[in-house]
Amino acid sequence: MAAYRVTPGFQRVLRAVKHASLRPQFCVISCHAQYSTVYDPNEKTFDKILIANRGEIACRVIKTCKKMGIKTVAVHSDVDSSSVHVKMADEAVCVGPAPTSQSYLNMDAIMEAIRQTGAQAVHPGYGFLSENKEFARRLATEGVTFIGPDTDAIQAMGDKIESKLIAKAAKVNTIPGFDGVVKDAEEAVKIAQQIGYPVMIKASAGGGGKGMRIAWNEEETREGFRFSSQEAASSFGDDRLLIEKYIDNPRHIEIQVLADKHGNALWLNERECSIQRRNQKVVEEAPSTFLDPVTRRAMGEQAVSLAKAVQYSSAGTVEFLVDSKKNFYFLEMNTRLQVEHPITECITGLDLVQQMIRVAKGYKLQHKQEDIPINGWAVESRVYAEDPYKSFGLPSIGRLSQYEEPVNLAGVRVDSGIQEGSDISIYYDPMISKLVTYGSTRDEALRKMEDALDNYVIRGVTHNIPLLREIIVHPRFISGDISTNFLPEVYPEGFKGHLLSTGEQRELLAAAAALYVAAQLRSQKFLGPQRVASVPQERSSWELCVELDKGVHMLGVSRSGSSYTVEIDGEKVVVSGDWNLASALLPLTINGSHRVLQCLSRNSAGEIALQYLGTSFKVRVLSKLAASLSKHMPEKIPEDTSSNLRSPMPGTVVAVSVKPGDTVAEGQEICVIEAMKMQNSMTAAKTAKVKSVHCKAGETVGEGDLLVELE
Predict the structure, then answer these.
(1) Distances (CA, A) of 3 to 25, 28, 295
(2) 21 — pLDDT class (breaks 50, 70, 90)
(3) Cα first-last separation, the chain
(4) 3-state secondary structure of 592
(5) Is the C or the N end of the chain the one with fewer CB within 10 Å?
(6) Model's pTM, two decimal places?
(7) How confident is the model at residue 10 (pLDDT cuts 50, 70, 90)?
């Protein structure tokens, strides 16, 4: 076997391995991205594991199984038959049609798949059946190992009410609230008044931000109860709710724990998860800029205390809310592998999936608390097929017509379960990937994230890269001044994309002009032998008109080789590059600064869409003559959107509250659209009479579909 170079940061992991010699003939050391798998072939685990999940997490589990020499079985719905996780696995079984209730939540079908394939163990990933005690019980009955905690721990921590009582008994700090099930909306109002507004209404069996609402008054409490109970029933099959005091402007910091079946438990440091929209995480990092060693240890010890209180065994996450004075309060425990686990792997060097498999087989932990390091800094951006300009991200669907991950960059890890040609559908979570960057310092990790986002090519669906890039370069985020209210505070009017400075606007205009000229020159080249000999006239200067955001700019462009000098308002901008117009990426040097742009589209009318600093900008480049003639073209009159209510996202109509002839007030609910198990209330933009209704409950609608017309 070839020799492997082991980094100094990873030597601590090697020293902690208890199994005999680490000579090459006895062990495999596999390094992937920013985590490592130390695998001893003499340490037998399982021959075959079924992954009861889909997408990126199924792919993530399969990768570690392959390194450990374990065969894998993928389950899939009929629409996922060509998915990446299906292709990666050694075997695949279809467990039903697209709806999750008939496939990935179909326990009978999954149990049958286990019997057919002879899988000895099941890794549930996250979501779906990962925290379902009935599924774990059924596996145990059939002698199949559940790679996760036992049913008692799932029951205790999966129920928000019971978990809070156990946390109190284990001397874990808890949030003041009502320790019982809320029966109806009126009782919710009564409890909220007793606790004091604002309050958090959330699903007892929930997680991931679903079935969760913040209420500041009686009306919002009633509405929050209705939506939360419906979302909880849809997502978890359990509509029970609880209410607790909402801690305004907190940080969301969680502790990764790892425990075995022999009473050993560790805390693997924290993850900062405060950047959220609709209670769902967007950007995470490890470690947190906010915690000092004393607070970190206190949180870690309380997390381990809670894990031991329920005899927890596996990887799990204890989530806390932390106020400005570093007081921390137990929020919930997720009894599964967390979405954002990669950043913990980056700073500790541990493969958490491998650790879960070892623990499930009954092995003791390989490490002690003093062996757990914080090496460097890691940042994760959740890349979603979402429109960030609509409520910081409403789902988008479509086919990935072009897709290139920035894995060629150093210190970049991409966990994904899709490829070029994959479909993003309404049936499942719209996550495209988890983009992770790692550096020796936070500044280095953030710079790498900036580069990775600029080099990430996604075509065919709307995505949230513009928002992600703005977050990581925002002064408040860079300084660590963040909370769960970061997005609404920074963008009170909603996200509008990158706001160009004067210098940045000049860079964009110059790049667009240079691209236009490069395309013009390329179109004038003849390929193959010419029938008529001609001497091409070499042109070196152009006068152009560039339109951007209703502004018109007259530019002078001169060319020298692959460099263009663009004069804008008396200022000169030099743009140079390879000008490979067939490439999705357009790396340029603008006045000495390296920039990576993306040409999203361009046509013969001079209309160019450029992704610059993460945001897509539409420009129109015309010759001086064409610009003078375009003034005579009639303009298209925009639609009166106040009279037409259109669906802002693809989804299913849950309820329609009006009929033709009804009079509605501004802000009144007209219908409810459910997308990716999140319910969204559609309201009237003005007071008017309903002219016609174009949808009904149960129907599937696409983005932009007309729902209701007002007079």
Answers:
(1) 11, 10, 41
(2) very low
(3) 76
(4) coil
(5) N
(6) 0.83
(7) very low
In terms of C-beta density within 10 A (0-12 exposed, 13-18 middle, 19 or more buried), how is residue 711 classed?
exposed
Query: Is 214:264 a contact under the CB 8 Å cutoff?
Result: no
pLDDT at 316 over 50: yes
Q: Is 336 annotated as catalytic? A: yes
Distances (CA, A) of 495 to 264, 490, 684: 46, 9, 21
Per-residue DSSP letter, 105: T
Strands 328-334 and 314-322: antiparallel
Residue 371, classed as helix, strand or coil, is helix
Radius of gyration of the chain (CA): 28
Q: What is the pLDDT of residues 224-279, one digit of tens each?
A: 999 888 887 776 777 888 898 888 789 999 999 999 999 999 999 999 999 999 88
Separation of alpha carbons 645 and 664, rounded Å: 13
Identify the residue whose tokens are 């020298």: 560
For residue 535, the model assigns a pLDDT of 56
For residues 438 and 343, what is the distance between their CA atoms, to the nearest angstrom?
8
Residues linked to residue 32 through DSSP beta bridges, in sequence order: 35
Place of tokens 């309050």: 199
- 705 secondary structure, DSSP code: -
Dihedral of the alpha carbons of 414, 418, 424, 427, in degrees to the nearest 10: -100
Report whether 65 contacts 72 (CB < 8 A).
yes
Give whole-number Cα distances, 116 to 73, 437, 554, 708, in Å.
10, 40, 70, 49
**Token digits of residue 688:** 């008017």
Catalytic residue among 54, 138, 277, 336: 336
In the block, tokens 């977050």 appear at 471
Which among 361, 414, 621 has a CA at the least distance from the CA of 516? Answer: 621
3-class secondary structure, 308: helix
* Angstrom distance (rounded) from CA 243 to CA 215: 10
Q: In whole angstroms, what is the distance from residue 456 CA to residue 413 CA? A: 12
| DSSP 8-state class, residue 177 | B
d(CA 453, CA 613): 9
d(CA 465, CA 469): 6
Pairing of strands 145-146, 121-123: parallel
Structure tokens at 430: 């719209």
**150 is written with which tokens?**
């036992």
Q: Is the pLDDT of residue 36 over 80?
A: no
Q: Give me the DSSP letters along 557-577.
A: EEEETTEEEEEETTEEEEEEE
Question: How does residue 486 score in pLDDT terms, banded at 50, 70 and 90?
Answer: very high
Residue whose pair of structure tokens reads 């940061």 in the numeric block: 9
Predicted pLDDT of residue 239? 80
pLDDT at 333: 96
